[in-house]
Amino acid sequence: MLRRDYEGQHCSVASALETIGERWTMLVIREVLQGRRKFAEMQRVLGVARNVLANRLQRLTDEGILERRIYSERPERYEYFLTQKGLDLWPVFVALMHWGDTYMPQPGGPPVRLVHKDGCGGAIDDRRICERCGEHVTVRDVTGILDPEVERGIAEKLST
Amino acid sequence: MLRRDYEGQHCSVASALETIGERWTMLVIREVLQGRRKFAEMQRVLGVARNVLANRLQRLTDEGILERRIYSERPERYEYFLTQKGLDLWPVFVALMHWGDTYMPQPGGPPVRLVHKDGCGGAIDDRRICERCGEHVTVRDVTGILDPEVERGIAEKLST
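^ Those are the sequences you sent over. The predicted structure of the assembly is below.
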């Protein structure tokens, strides 16, 4: 059984944090949200110790937030995908991102801008509403546009 | 200088987590959101070690998320209040709460229900919109109604 980090706290925030509040966990989910599905890719971009990453992926799979699919048998290799439970964490990311953009602004501007797909192109506000067409969007309706500098940094890490 | 937990991650989510991602930090903010402003109250409800709580309150004050106001000179005692930067974390709580309510439901139903104040009484959805009147609410427009069982549990902790 998992250790209950916040025992005695009858609180949905505490329950959520017991599952996703460990160091690196949210950034591992961010990686998969951004389409980096392989252990080696995530490890390069995050620069996290391999055992920590393996532990987080295992826990997230056990919790039903990620599911893994084999893509190579020899050597055995998996790709990770978000389940619906995992995709439903997207509002937490949007909220954290807006707060971070507001209070810890990067010199070059926001590292990622969320944009409505499907020909609209409107910016997504902190309530996950398209500022152009007013649609209440979900993660599937949105694409994240990276700042070119950030994109270059990721490409560099992936190529080493 | 604070240790940069997620060095090399040019990401607003990572920046936000560097500030609020430590164990207990979000629950300390939750306490202040719920109006428990004194060290002893928070310590009883959270059941956290005193040195950990003192550390988190100091860090949150240093980061400008909480501010403290003296209410007793001998002994020296403070109450903690959320700054605007702290209040602006409310969307993160709403998102975590909805996810926890959905995927880790408590046997007795949601521990807290968010309700529009000012005579409306509508429920607040996961986009922070009032389901009755359609207003886009902020933390100041909303009250959290605790499940009676949860409220009893908190009262018990506070009285010990």
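The longest helix of chain B spans residues 90-103. The mean pLDDT of chain B is 93.

Shout if you want it in another format.
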